Structures are given as structure tokens and as C-alpha cells.
Amino acid sequence: MKLSSILPRLFAIAALFVSMLSCSENLDSSAACPILCPQIGGDVQNITIDAVVVDTTVPSLSGLGTEPGLLLASRGDTLDTRVIIRFDSLPETFIPTGGTSTPIASIDSAYIQLMLDTTTIKGIDSVTIEAYDVDTTANDTSTADVLALFRPDRFISSQIFARAQLTDTLKYFISNAAVLARIQSRANLRVGLRAVSVSSTQMRFISNEGANGPVLFFRATPDTTTHPLTALPFSKTPTGQSILAANLTDYTVIAKGPPPAPPSVLAVGGLPARRVYILFNIPSNIIDSSTVVRATLLLNQLPNTGIDATDTVALLPQVVLAGTAVTDPAKAAQIIGGISTDTLRLKPGGSGVTNVELARAFTLWHTQKPDTLPRAIVLKSVTEGNSPLELRFSSSEDIAALRPRLRISFTSTVPLGLP
Fold it and tell me: Residue range 143-165: average pLDDT?
């Protein structure tokens, strides 16, 4: 089924979501709102069932360069990421003070302005950010081809930042000669940034997909009364693929990521980013003929003591909107919709039972037949693709006591209209 045919139904049940939430917070409060929250039609039943048919870790296929952040990290053998910014269109002329349009013959004070999310900074020592020429005719999306360009003969310039200099607006000064050479030869200015430090370092810049992405500033004359020129990230390639080219204006390339979770473990987050797809087989009488007051997915969290084990990951459950024609979990996990405004905050190093609330998913499933919309959800990180943090959970391959289960509180159908 096409996504466009499902969305109208989602809008139609939006009001129902609100009313369900207002009535499900406290089962003993129905007398306080007899009109908005009609009396429940029978005793509330509570069951815990093994309803998982499929649970698996799938890659996040949102696409290279679609993340709202650019992760620059150098954390020894644990994590190494680089930032690529493409300026494939540069000004060739300027207007000096009191003059007319003139070809650019010199460059002064060239720098890339980067907006830094200071809450993501790791490390206390100074960091050197090196710039390399990563323009190539090789495969645009090949990590190996891009990483091979971070070599001495491609070096452009470097700049040292003390920890106190890493503020929300960062000016990264780049070689004036390198910018001028690209302008005069009408070549692409594609910059690869690499972090170097005596200790572990990490930071995240705002990308072109977010607000206030990178901007190149420079003057065509030392005369400060002449307005500086600017260039925004732009990519000419891949030719004939405008969406992909737009994504590749700036992006993160992973030279080394944290070790992946074992295949039998459910993993959320990490680099490359991963999601969890879970398909349920829920008794039809619960969905079709009952009112689900509360539904909770019980997951057993496994400690991940790899990178930043005590940091926090915001976990977000999503309902799968892909129709039954989409049988590949990896593809189905990309067609999703929100079912909660609240996020579950967990530490990668944590362990024990974790509760994921799914009541709104049941409300949607009540309006859709299982042969139209599978009873499936996706668990994803809010900072997917922007953070190396990874949560791990037991899968249905684990021992019975640790497998994912559903705990459901339901009663006979509640009338939705006034008498």
C-alpha cells in the first residue's frame, strides 16, 4: 500500500489519540470526567504475551548526508569520523568600493563559518582541525575513495583551537591560495576536515540540512570597506541525481566506527546508524473488540560498555506505515510515523527491564486490518546518524525470560459517542 493512502487515515484518528491518552493516565479517575471519559465497559484485564514474530536490527537508510549534523571525531581506536563540505560554485567576480564588476585576482581572509553544537564536545585538550582537498572524479558515495584523499599531497591548511575557543560560532580559516586557485581554474573546492588531538576529541557541527549550515567567507581585496563574498555548500554531482547531490553538499564519512553489536542482539543508534524492527502477532480480539488502556513493550537492556556508556540516548518508538507488500524489514523500517511525543532516555551502559509505551500504536492498528497494515514498530535514536552511542537489547533468540514481551491492559470497547 502506498504511504499516501495511509496518511489520511492517520489524520482522522489524531483526535482519538488525544482522547485515549486523557483517559488512560488513571483508571480510577473516570468519575471525574463522565462525559470525556465514558465508563469502561468491563473489568480491566492484564496480560503479558510473547507476541514477537520478527525482531531484527536494520540499517538506517535515510541516506548519506541527510543528517542535520556533521560529526567530527578522533577517539583513537574507538571512533574516527571526518567532515566533507563541497563548494562546487564559487564567485568569479566582485565589485570593489566605488568600482564595477571585476574578475577576482586575489583572496584575503578566507574562512568557513561552522555552527557548533557545544553540548556535543568531548575532550579537554586543544584540537587541530586539518583541511584536505577531497575533490575527485571517483564514486561520490565511496567511503574508501574519499578517505584515500586525506594524505599529505592533498593537505590544504590547519588551525589549532584551544578548548575555550570551541564556541557556537567557529571560524575555520582556510588557505587563501587554495580558494583563489579553485576560482581561477573554475574547479570545485571540496574540503575534508579531520580532527587531531593528543587525547580523545569529538564535536558536531550543524549541517546544510539543519539551520545555519557551513558558509565560506572571503574578500577579493584586502580593502575592508569592500563587502566580503560568500559561498554556500553546493554539489554538482552525481549528475542527474539532484536529491543525492543536494545531500552531498556536506556529510560525515566514517573512517572507523565502534564495534557493532552481535547479530543476535537488537541495537539502536551507533555508527553506522541502526534501528530495530519488531513485528507482532497480537490476538485479534484485543485489537478489534477491546479498548487497550495501556500497552507496554518489555525489553531487556544489555549493557554496552564501549563508548560513552554513561551518556544518554533518547529512544523513540515509531509505528511502521509500510503496507504488507513491503516484506523486507530494512525497507519497511524506513516508512514510519510518530506515536509518542515523549522519548525514553537510557544510558548505553544500563541494564535491566525497559518499558516502551505503545498504546497509540494499538489505536492506529484498531483502524487498520492486519492484511493492510502489519502490527510492527521501529525503535530509533533521536540523534540517529549524529552520535556513536548505541543501545542494546535482548532479542527473541535469547532465553525465554529475557525475550521482548508485550504487557497489555484492556477492557471491552469503550463507547466513543455521547448517549
Answer: 96
